[in-house]
Amino acid sequence: MKHVVVQGASRGVGLGLVRACLARGDRVHATCRTPSLASNLQSLKRTYAEQLLIHQLDVTQETTIEQASYAVRAVSPQIHLHINASGLLHHPTVKPERRLEELSAEALLRLFAVNTIGPLLVIKHFLPCFQHHERSVVASLSARVGSIGDNRRGGWYGYRASKAALNQMHRSLAIELSRRAVHTISVTLHPGTVATDLTIPFRKSVPPDKLFSVEKSVELLLGVMDSLTLSDHGGFFDYARKRIEW
Asked: Of the candidates 36, 45, 50, 175, which lies 20 to 30 Å from 144 by C-alpha distance?
């Protein structure tokens, strides 16, 4: 049995990862902001009572991250797969900018809090779980639009920048983990364009064969993570295991 943490597990790709990991026999720690309102997770808990543990965690509130890490470590002191799946693209007060006039300091701060700072704070508090002698993977869901080299259309200032910063943080993390958690592989992953609430306003221009179901994206992502070796440490990969330029 592998021990897995999925941060941002109440819906979308995060929920799909929980389902897939439970189905293959892993013990899964699922975190979300409000467990009592996470009906899909609660339903899974009734089916996988022994395998699934649900913890409250808000990536914008570090005290909740610390408390969740203690709860996880009490049950699973060694984690083999940790996935930061939460992310913010749009919200009633946040939307992808098409031009400079649409920039908002408040929206930018919110995007960085959720997409960049939060995932690294989670890894900070869960670090002891990776300091063991078995292979483990620490991954955060990034996005191809966070690639500076691949940016040919502009716009989406906040989302692009927050994901680019996440990639940079993970790159630095990989260097530190090479000294402090030598069997852990740190990567960022592009899940493709997935049919979730995140992408609803932006699907019209996506070809049908490029719009993945949650189940397909999860299958591909788990395949990538299962195949990673230490030579991939610090990389940025897409769902087909192809490296993405920074």
From this structure: 175
